[in-house]
Each structure stands twice: as structure tokens, then as C-alpha cells.
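> run fold Cytochrome c oxidase assembly factor 6
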Amino acid sequence: MDQQQLAGVASDVLAGRRAACYKARDLFYACLEKQKNLTPTEVASVGLLYPSTCKKARVEYEKNCRLTWVKHFDRQYCAKKRVNRFLDKENTRSGPITLPEPSTFKNP
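> ok
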């Protein structure tokens, strides 16, 4: 990429900044996993709750990543946790998945 093309690209999408974003993201989510037995007291984007001990990691994560990326990664993390909760055999909240009865489908 030449200098003229590089001038039109936002600096946070270049490889070095993306790597810093991913590293900050991974550190924040590692903190969440490490502190999962603590009561979450802080609210992040998309309703994600986290303990106050991870606040410093969250600030770094938000500082190093675009806001849209932070929301996207938070949504992915929440979706993954939700799926894992349903698949976890030890979790009492998961319950069976019920499908509609065949008689409720309309025949063509």
C-alpha cells in the first residue's frame, strides 16, 4: 500500500492496532473467566456484566478497540456463554429443548 492510500485508512484498522485490540480483548475476557465466581458489579456494552476487579482490563480494551468492535466482541462472548450454558450438563438452568408437535405444522 502506498503512502497516499495509507493516509485514507483509519489507524485503528492497521495490523499493529488490530493486534493491540485483540490482545486487550483477550486479557479482558481472561479476567472474566478467572473472576467468574465473583459477583458482577459493572455494566459493559450489550448488557455484559463484569466484576470490578476487571475494570482496568475493560478500560484498556475500550481504549484499544473501536466502539463497534467492542460491541461486536461483547455480543460474541455473550452468545458463546449462552450456548455453553445450554449445553452444560451440570447447569440446572439449561433444561430440555422442546420442539413444536408435528400436528402444529401446516401441511401443504
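Residues 67-87 form the longest helix (21 residues).
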